[in-house]
Design brief:
Blueprint (H helix, E strand, L loop, with lengths): L13 H18 L9 H8 L3 H7 L3 H21 L12 H12 L1 H8 L5 H23 L11 H21 L6 H13 L12
Helix pairs in contact: 1-2, 1-4, 4-7, 5-9, 6-8, 7-8
Length: 206
C-alpha cells in the first residue's frame, strides 16, 4: 500500500487559508456594524457563506475568530507604538505619537466596537499585551544605553502602566462625540507623559 503524502508542518492547504480569510473578513465587517457581543457564529457563517460547522472547524469560538481577525490590525498598532519614543520625552510631541492616534482614528468604528462595553475582552487583553511588549523593548534599550543613566526600576510595571493608559485613552477617544482630533489627543497624552500641567503654557508643543 503506497505511503500517504502529508503536507510539511509549515504548509497549509490553500483552501483552509481562503476559508479563514473569508471568516475573518466576515467577522470584521459585522464588528464594524454592531456591538461584538451581539455577533454570533451563525451571523459570521451567513456573512461568509459557509455553514456553522465550517466555522468551528477553524475556530473554537467567536472571540478566537475575532482575535485572529484583529491580529494584523493590532500588530500594525503595536509597530506604530514601537516607533514612538515613549521613554525619551522631548520638548515637541513626536510625529510618531500623532501617527499612532491617526491610525486609531482612521479605524475608529472598528476600535469603538472592539474596545467598547460590547467588545471583546480577549482583544483588549491582546492589545494591552502587545503594547506592553513594545514599551518593554524601549525600556530595555533605554537601560542598555551608554548615557550613564540608571535603568528604571520595575520595568514590567512601567510598561503595563503605559500600555493600560493607551488602551484606556484609545477607548475613551474613539467613543467621544466631537472629541479632540488625533493631533490634539496626541499632544494631550504627551503632556501627561511628560508630567506637564494642562494649563501650562508650552509654546514648544505644537
Amino acid at each position: 500500500m503506497p505511503k500517504q503524502r502529508t503536507l510539511p508542518a509549515d504548509r497549509v492547504d490553500p483552501r483552509v487559508l481562503r476559508t479563514r480569510a473569508l471568516l475573518r473578513e466576515a467577522a470584521l465587517a459585522i464588528a464594524a456594524e454592531r456591538d461584538v457581543e451581539s455577533m454570533t457564529i451563525a451571523d459570521i457563517a451567513e456573512r461568509a457563506t459557509v455553514n456553522r460547522a465550517t466555522v468551528y472547524q477553524h475556530y473554537r469560538d467567536r472571540d478566537a475568530l475575532l482575535l485572529d481577525a484583529m491580529e494584523e490590525e493590532v500588530g500594525r498598532l503595536a509597530r506604530a507604538a514601537a516607533r514612538c519614543p515613549l521613554t525619551h520625552p522631548a520638548q515637541r510631541t513626536p510625529d510618531e505619537l500623532v501617527d499612532l492616534f491617526r491610525h486609531v482614528g482612521t479605524n475608529a468604528t472598528l476600535y469603538r466596537r472592539m474596545l467598547g462595553p460590547g467588545g471583546s475582552a480577549r482583544f483588549v487583553n491582546r492589545l494591552r499585551e502587545l503594547l506592553a511588549e513594545e514599551v518593554s523593548a524601549q525600556l530595555a534599550g533605554e537601560s542598555g544605553g551608554s548615557d550613564g543613566r540608571e535603568p528604571a526600576p520595575f520595568p514590567e510595571l512601567r510598561a503595563h502602566y503605559l500600555a493600560g493608559a493607551f488602551v484606556g485613552v484609545f477607548t475613551q477617544w474613539v467613543s467621544m462625540s466631537g472629541g479632540p482630533t488625533a493631533d490634539q489627543a496626541a499632544r494631550e497624552v504627551w503632556r501627561l507623559l511628560r508630567g506637564a500641567s494642562p494649563d501650562r503654557e508650552d509654546t514648544d508643543l505644537p
